[in-house]
Specification:
With about 200 residues, the protein is α+β, with helices and mostly antiparallel strands. Helices cover about 30% and strands about 25% of the residues. It has six helices and eight strands.
């Protein structure tokens, strides 16, 4: 079969089975902190995804967080809208904050919650038809911190001062990841450093 015929066959297959576009394009990032390099130099963009099929191809290629935890790796995965860097200094993040969930060393929950968070983002599940403005437009990305002292998952937003919007994002996230009502998430401002003694701005 000639290359021309191959090309025509691929085009025909694409027409029959087109890819499913995502509401927003997203980027996978990874970092394993290295004292010999700056944070930005250690940050690696793995892949940009625009379609459901591309998301799953990338996701299935990556090691799950619990595997990295068992390997005693201190590292982070980031999943952000393409064009937004996973750092609070980015202009889309600088006026926002993050909903933070601390999981201790529960590796099973770590995988479940990280996966459900990603699926809620690519499925645009944060937005309801009744919303005046889609809540997904205020979400910039998600982070999983894998640490031997305890793991964390966070949902980042571009908004911090509109309490109604921020709290509703937090409530919907808790529901999507099926978090027990007694487990709390807290919201911190990006521009206040997020130190261990910082008082959360909101809690759900």
């Amino acid at each position: 079969m000639t290359s021309t015929n191959n090309s025509q066959k691929e085009e025909k297959e694409h027409e029959i089975n087109p890819k499913s576009p995502l509401e927003y394009p997203w980027s996978f990032w990874y970092i394993k902190p290295d004292k010999r390099s700056s944070w930005e130099d250690s940050l690696i963009r793995i892949m940009d995804v625009k379609h459901v099929e591309d998301f799953w191809a990338t996701y299935n290629h990556l090691q799950i967080p619990s595997k990295l935890a068992r390997d005693k790796s201190n590292c982070d995965y980031y999943f952000f809208k393409t064009g937004i860097r996973p750092m609070w200094e980015d202009k889309r993040n600088s006026s926002g904050g993050r909903w933070l969930l601390s999981l201790g060393r529960d590796e099973m929950k770590l995988d479940e919650i990280w996966t459900e968070t990603l699926l809620s983002l690519i499925g645009d599940l944060f937005s309801f038809n009744s919303d005046p403005t889609p809540l997904s437009s205020f979400i910039t990305g998600a982070v999983v911190n894998i640490r031997q002292r305890g793991h964390k998952v966070a949902l980042w937003t571009s908004e911090a001062r509109n309490e109604m919007i921020v709290r509703e994002i937090g409530r919907r996230w808790k529901k999507m990841i099926q978090l027990h009502p007694q487990m709390k998430i807290q919201f911190d401002l990006h521009n206040e450093g997020g130190g261990p003694h910082q008082r959360p701005m909101y809690e759900e």
